[in-house]
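Ticket #4471: structure export looks truncated?
Reporter: QA, pipeline team
Priority: medium

Steps to reproduce: submit the single chain below to the structure queue and open the exported record.
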Amino acid sequence: MNAGVPTSEPRPSGSGLSEPRAPSTGLTSVRAERPLSASVTPPLGAAGSEKADTEPLPHGRGSDKPLPHGRGSDKPLPHGRGSDGAAGSDKPAVDELGLLQPEEEVLSTLNRDGSRRWLRPRLSQGRFLVGRQLTAYLLIAVFTLIPHVRINGEPAMLLDVVHRKFALFGIVFRSTDTVVLAFFLLACAIAVFLFTALLGRVWCGWACPQTVYLEFLYRPIERLFDHTRGRGGQPRRPRSPAGWAAMYGLYLLASMFLAHTFLAYFVGVDELLHWMRRSPLEHPASFAVMAVTTALMMFNFSYFREQTCLVACPYGRFQAALLDRDSLIISYDAERGEPRSKVRSQQLETGNKKLETRNRKSEIGDGGIRPVTASREAVQLPVAGGPAAFTSDFLLQTSDFAPGDCVDCGLCVVTCPTGIDIRKGLQMECVGCAQCIDACDLVMDKVKRPRGLIRYTSEARLAGQRGRILRTRVVLYSMGLLALLGALTAVVATRGPAEVMILQGLGLPFNELPDGRIGNPIRIKITNRTQAAATYRVEIVGAASATLITDAPAFSLEPGQTRTEGAIITLPRSDFAGGQASVVIRVSDGAGFTREFKRLLHGPAAR
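Actual output as written to the record:
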């Protein structure tokens, strides 16, 4: 019998083996396309041994040595059938203190006992990290400068909730612009749908302020004092008290900077500068707002960190419901990577032919062989004399069990900013930052395997199907977004230089005045949308018998100012046919703006 070559001799009956296989001409380093399967017939013994048919197996039936775990062993499996663990057993898993343990990982930032697992992700250099760095620092500059940029005399973006004033690219909106607000919010929602359908969660990993500031401002500060600058990971040596103080001092400065930048979007740069120049005793309320915002920034970026994405932010859960099989995701190619193993490159010589393959460990466990599902249970096959664990010689001789490309180095896990294992499949915690891609590509380069074991892809492409960018939901989202943007543009473009509203006055709908005329109270609300002061005049047209009683028939408004004036429209009792009459109210500014409103008045029915 040739050493290490499966034989075609008949197998003993009742051994549970499949039909004899044709003799192999040599070893192969090409991995079979099909996954790990128990239907493949292994050789009858270890490589290079001709006594394997008669000698007992090292473990299991036919051997004096029991299996290390499970059947035929005094040691139960760590989990599953035959174990006291939770999986596959009636008994729940407990720790040494008698506390119940979860069957699986609950959250990547929690230990099994429920305590916080602090993440110090390793920094994996690569093309995606360079792209994220350039994008992040550009966005930090943009986020900082936007409140300071003025267009048509207005901030590029302002969300003044207190004064109900909103500015976007120089266009001012008021709380009364409900139609504009409705179209804008709907357009934002449809844009999120479209963005998710096409690019998945790229926003979370590349452009979200939480990720940008945490990964490219606060973590670099931490790595500076951990002496892991440019590398990340666990600190090289403990920090000194001075190091702790200096690090949190820089955290505080960064948090103050972010708090002031954040508030500039809501109160405006001018008001914020006014707050900063005054003593806190002169404006305790505004100072308290600044202090609370700074404290929240400090808490978020120095303590809560990635848990904001995993626990507090609803965006990830919302997007998880919007993904489809063609959405862009980061995924591990299990078909190519499994079964994974600890490997090293070497040259094996069979006769006069050299084949490059890998030597793999024979142990079943964390560093050993796992099926595609990444289960940690020992995988056994039926062989002559009973089941036996895999051996490295057997795996090297059987092309069906050639190792996958994943070397189980774990770098994709230690580099993940949310602490997940991307090899477990698509997870809500994945923010699409591509750090696992950079880490895996570096390893693939070292072991001389093609890049892309972990890559940006879609579920359809990963399954061997043709990916589709143009699909039904993308077309519908695009059409809906274009329609909403068109409607929004039309509404904004047709807005006049002033907004005029005729409102019902306070009190009764009508009153009888001492002279016998019937008066209807109204309120006239005018907003100046121009960038210059304007004077507006209110008058009644088309009804000679109608009069307008007001304290200010003409008044001036500054740019952006809103004013409401009360007035009374009077008519003779005889003009109310059936208890109703109508008049036309005209509002003009003398510079081309004129707006007329037909107003229905109420009065007593004619006798």
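Status: closed, not a bug. The export was complete when the record was re-opened. Leaving a note from the reviewer for reference: The chain has a mean pLDDT of 77.
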